[in-house]
């Protein structure tokens, strides 16, 4: 296993307004693999994701990327290393090209049209979209542009938060195939929050089950077919929402 792209949680806690959101989370997201995060709403999944790229800071414990504590990595460096795509796929006003240029502009750099076209190709979008207004894109196209924009910094780690939940079945399958291809082609370490348990099973190499801010069970995604923990069985049976 490549050590440099692993993310290790060591007794990580996060508290907000005296309310524990995450409680002593310990575990490792394996490098170059897709780990799906599942659990009921309010389990702390999005909070955990935000801790991975410094949008939030742990109240206690440590998060290590490779061998380096996240607390010692400057935020701009961290966010270049750990990309994030969200359910809403927010776009700035302007063209697809304007959106793809954004990560470079934030670091006083430029993205050529030729480079931008390569990123569109990576996410299976036609070159004709480059100068189209982002507001005119379909939901699936927006999500692909959002992923392409995240890839501009060539992050070895990619965080995905419910990126297919607002898409129809066909568009969701296309995004799943895309993410699997990106993982295979570039060896990107991917952590993917999903409420779709079927998706978690067939897309993920590994799965973490979170309930009430705790990591209940982790292992190969096949655990969703044969869970060991009672709480996981309850969740999968629909007993925990």
Automatic annotation (TrEMBL):
<dbReference type="InterPro" id="IPR003439">
    <property type="entry name" value="ABC_transporter-like_ATP-bd"/>
</dbReference>
<keyword id="KW-0813">Transport</keyword>
<feature type="domain" description="ABC transporter">
    <location>
        <begin position="7"/>
        <end position="237"/>
    </location>
</feature>
<dbReference type="InterPro" id="IPR017871">
    <property type="entry name" value="ABC_transporter-like_CS"/>
</dbReference>
<dbReference type="GO" id="GO:0005524">
    <property type="term" value="F:ATP binding"/>
</dbReference>
<dbReference type="Pfam" id="PF00005">
    <property type="entry name" value="ABC_tran"/>
</dbReference>
<dbReference type="GO" id="GO:0016887">
    <property type="term" value="F:ATP hydrolysis activity"/>
</dbReference>
<dbReference type="InterPro" id="IPR027417">
    <property type="entry name" value="P-loop_NTPase"/>
</dbReference>
<protein>
    <submittedName>
        <fullName>Phosphate ABC transporter ATP-binding protein</fullName>
    </submittedName>
</protein>
<keyword id="KW-0547">Nucleotide-binding</keyword>
<keyword id="KW-0067">ATP-binding</keyword>
<dbReference type="InterPro" id="IPR003593">
    <property type="entry name" value="AAA+_ATPase"/>
</dbReference>
């Amino acid at each position: 296993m490549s050590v440099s792209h692993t993310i290790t949680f060591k007794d990580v806690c996060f508290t907000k307004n005296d309310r524990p959101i995450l409680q002593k989370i310990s575990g490792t997201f394996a490098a170059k693999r897709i780990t799906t995060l599942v659990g009921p709403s309010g389990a702390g999944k999005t909070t955990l994701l935000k801790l991975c790229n410094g949008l939030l800071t742990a109240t206690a414990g440590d998060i290590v990327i490779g061998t380096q504590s996240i607390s010692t990595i400057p935020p701009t460096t961290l966010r270049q290393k750990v990309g994030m795509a969200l359910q809403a796929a927010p776009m700035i006003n302007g063209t697809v090209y304007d959106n793809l240029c954004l990560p470079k502009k934030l670091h006083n750099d430029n993205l050529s049209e030729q480079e931008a076209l390569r990123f569109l190709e990576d996410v299976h979008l036609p070159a004709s979209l480059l100068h189209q207004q982002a507001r005119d894109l379909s939901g699936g196209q927006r999500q692909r542009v959002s992923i392409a924009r995240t890839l501009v910094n060539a992050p070895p780690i990619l965080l995905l938060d419910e990126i297919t939940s607002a898409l129809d079945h066909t568009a969701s399958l296309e995004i799943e195939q895309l993410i699997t291809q990106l993982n295979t082609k570039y060896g990107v370490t991917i952590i993917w929050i999903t409420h779709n348990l079927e998706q978690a099973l067939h897309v993920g190499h590994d799965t973490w089950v979170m309930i009430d801010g705790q990591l209940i069970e982790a292992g190969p995604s096949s655990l969703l077919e044969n869970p060991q923990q009672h709480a996981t069985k309850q969740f999968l049976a629909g007993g925990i929402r």
